[in-house]
Write a structure and sequence with these properties.
Layout (H helix, E strand, L loop, with lengths): L1 H11 L18 E2 L8 E2 L3 E4 L1 E2 L8 E6 L2 E7 L4 E4 L6 E11 L2 E12 L5 E12 L6 E7 L2 E6 L6 E5 L6 E6 L6 E7 L2 E6 L4 E6 L5 E6 L9 E3 L4 E4 L4 E6 L4 E7 L1 E2 L2 E2 L3 E7 L2 E6 L4 E5 L6 E6 L15 E7 L4 E6 L4 E8 L1
Parallel strand pairs: 2-9, 10-28
Antiparallel strand pairs: 1-4, 3-7, 5-6, 5-8, 8-9, 10-31, 11-12, 12-13, 13-14, 15-16, 16-17, 17-18, 19-20, 20-21, 21-22, 23-24, 25-26, 26-27, 27-28, 29-30, 30-31
């Protein structure tokens, strides 16, 4: 088991996270009693929330909150037991508001909810190998109507390309203005969405003509990395452990999940593809793909893609990037930045 976990750590580049920090309250009348708290909580554990009362105040009642949402109240100084099964992975902020006489006082504490799943080490089989343009700094890869589309990065050399993946022949190419660094793409509702890296700007094209219809600004102060969708919402990564949920009609970010492998955050979540109900994401600068539960953020499987390098003529800095699922063939296509090849694979346990 230790060897298994060590391999996962190497593939994903994860770092262990320490215990949750205390979020300081507005005063020191009360504190959350964390004497029985574990280093990490896992779903579906429960947390028993109570307070320490060093000044022996006569408490009338306590209202308890998790992430600013009220989850219950008790009379006197009784504790409250709260199940964490419906909470997203990551930090949870506990608050207890104690009422005494005509006054009240808050006590706060931060805890961390981590995954209780040990990822499976998955395998792959190469079905076909195709040419890939070595000048393409791949950022996004997507199939639409059995045609492959690619988005590339680098300012002054970013473009959106539609091409015949079997031959590499370019069908159509849209060059981005030199101020933009192209990133992830996804097709939804007859539109093609494209992100940019640090310019906090996105583009919406007509899916058939690739005519630019709208330019939009991110409503959060984040970077643009990978992109995918489930037919209703768009999901995008920002180079951290977060995967954001976007409303394509408004381009507003409405929620997010945190990606965890066991008790460790997965930093630098990059290219995204939703395949059979799971996020497939490569981790930046790692020859690995993580299979992520889109509801919880838990990593359920790991694909070690380092074996592809023996078929390539690339530098170590030419990293894996680009995951596309072809629903017609039910196969996955993967490539990398400036790779000379693209691989069609199937995945199995």
């Amino acid at each position: 088991m230790k060897k298994h976990n060590f391999l996962i750590a190497i593939l994903l580049g994860i770092t262990l996270i320490g215990c949750g920090d205390t979020k300081k309250g507005e005063n020191s009348l009360f504190t959350i009693d964390d004497s029985a708290f574990p280093v990490h909580f896992t779903s579906p554990e429960s947390v028993s929330i109570g307070i320490l009362n060093p000044n022996s105040k006569e408490i009338d009642s306590i209202a308890y909150f998790v992430n600013d949402k009220k989850v219950g109240s008790t009379k006197g100084s009784e504790k409250l037991k709260f199940e964490l099964k419906d909470q997203k992975l990551g930090y949870q902020y506990l608050k207890a508001t104690a009422y005494f006489g005509s006054d009240s006082s808050d006590a706060t504490k931060r805890i961390e909810l981590v995954s209780n799943i040990t990822p499976k080490l998955l395998k792959y089989k190469i079905i076909n190998t195709y040419p890939h343009d070595t000048t393409s700094f791949t950022e996004g890869l997507e199939f639409h109507d059995d045609v492959l589309f690619e988005s590339t990065g680098q300012k002054g050399d970013s473009y959106l390309r539609k091409y015949d993946y079997k031959t590499g022949k370019i069908i159509k190419q849209i060059d981005l203005d030199s101020m933009y660094f192209g990133e992830g793409i996804t097709f939804i509702n007859g539109k093609l969405f494209q992100l940019t890296w640090q310019e906090k700007t996105g583009f919406i094209y007509d899916a058939k003509t690739l005519k630019l219809e709208k330019t939009f600004k991110f409503d959060k102060n984040i970077e643009g990395w990978g992109m995918t969708n489930d037919g209703k919402y768009i999901y995008q990564s920002d180079g951290t452990e977060k995967i954001w949920k976007m409303d394509p009609a408004t381009q507003k970010l409405i929620d997010y999940i945190n990606v965890y492998s066991g008790d460790s955050k997965i930093k630098a979540v990059n290219e995204l593809e939703l395949i059979e109900g799971k996020f497939y994401t490569n981790v930046f600068e790692k020859d690995a793909i993580a299979v992520v539960n889109p509801n919880t953020g838990a990593v359920e499987g790991i694909l070690d893609m380092s074996g592809l390098r023996k078929f390539l003529n690339v530098k170590p800095t030419d990293v894996l990037n680009g995951i596309a699922y072809n629903p017609k063939t039910k196969t996955i296509f993967v490539t990398g930045k400036n790779w000379n090849k693209m691989f069609e694979i199937t995945v199995f346990e």
